[in-house]
Structure formats: structure tokens, C-alpha cells
């Protein structure tokens, strides 16, 4: 299974959970993360999680210019609006394509762990991209059964960096200080 990873705290909980039933590899692909120093910090923390849980981590390219071009017309959307849906789609499609090209049987994402993200939208998109790339998709809502709370506890125990905004420039502007 190829699992899209957006950040280390979410990955720590979800990858450990999925490892019980699947042979998992992680895929860090997040061209939305801004600024580049934040991207680098999240990637480094994700590398730590890969070492802790002993899974292969595939690192996608950081193509923020492409991301900004696609998102431009949605930049004024509110959090959880159309901009976020487009951002999910960019990352999920790239994950599905990478999974299919690399010979994985199934893919999913850790993003549904976040209480700020819409699992139903991601699951619908995941099914769509699974169909497009002829691969299976694991539908999930990892925030259920206190998943988010458990991820917070685990990340504290492992002293992982926990970001205070989703990742993009627009969510950074909306974060509470």
C-alpha cells in the first residue's frame, strides 16, 4: 500500500495502524506547503517517523509553482472550501498515479485524520482516482475512535514537530496566533 503523508504526526498514528494489515510505504507529496522551510521541516520529521516505524518513504518533488498556478482562482476561498478540495485532488491524484506506476495494489492518505479535513470529499476523490489509474483505494476516516487525539499523544511522546496550520500560504494567513 502506498500511503500519502502530509505530516509526521498524522503519519505516526496512521502508518502504525495500517501496518497491522498492510505492507505500507509512505509518499510525502505536498507542493502546497509554504514556505519552503516549513516543507523541509515537515519532510525531515516524516523521515524520522519512517525510521521509527521502519517503512520505505518515497519523497515527491516540491513543485509549489505548479500548485500556485492551479490554486490561483481559489485563493480567496475559505478554509475547507473549494481551494482545499482542489488541493486534496492534486495530492491524491499524484499518489494514485505514483502507486499505479510503482506496482502498488492500493493507496490511501493520512489526511483524513485531521479534524480540519473532509474525509468524505477525500474518499470520493480517492475512488475517482483509483478508477482512473486502475488501482484500489482504502477509504478511511482516521479521526474516528479518537484517532486525532491519539496522534497528538504519540507525536508528543516522540517529540515530533506539530505544525499550527494546514500548510499552504492561505491557511498560514488564517492560523490563530
Summarize the structure.
This protein is α/β, with parallel strands linked by helices and 177 residues long.
Describe the structure.
With 177 residues, the chain is an alpha/beta fold. The protein has one domain: 3-Layer(aba) Sandwich (Rossmann fold), CATH 3.40.50.620. It has seven helices and five strands, in the order βαβαβααβαβαα. It has helices at residues 8-19, 36-53, 64-71, 82-101, 119-133, 147-157, 169-174; strands spanning 2-5, 25-28, 56-59, 106-109, 136-137. It has a five-stranded parallel beta sheet, sandwiched between helices. α1 packs parallel to α2 (36-53) and α4 packs parallel to α5. The longest helix is centred in the middle third of the chain and has 20 residues, at 82-101. The N and C termini lie far apart (37 Å). The model has no long low-confidence stretch (mean pLDDT 95).
CATH superfamily: HUPs
Give the low-confidence spans: none
CATH topology: Rossmann fold
Strand content: 5-15%
CATH architecture: 3-Layer(aba) Sandwich
- N-to-C terminal Cα separation, in Å? 37 Å
> pLDDT average, as an integer?
95
Task: Summarize the helix and strand pattern as letters.
Answer: EHEHEHHEHEHH
Tally of DSSP β-strands: 5
- Our count of helices gives 7
Summarize the main sheet: 5 strands, parallel
Query: Strand arrangement, largest sheet?
Result: 3-2-1-4-5
Shape: globular
Strand-pairing-aware structural class: alpha/beta
Give Rg in angstroms.
15 Å
Q: How many domains is the backbone divided into?
A: 1
What is the CATH class designation? Alpha Beta
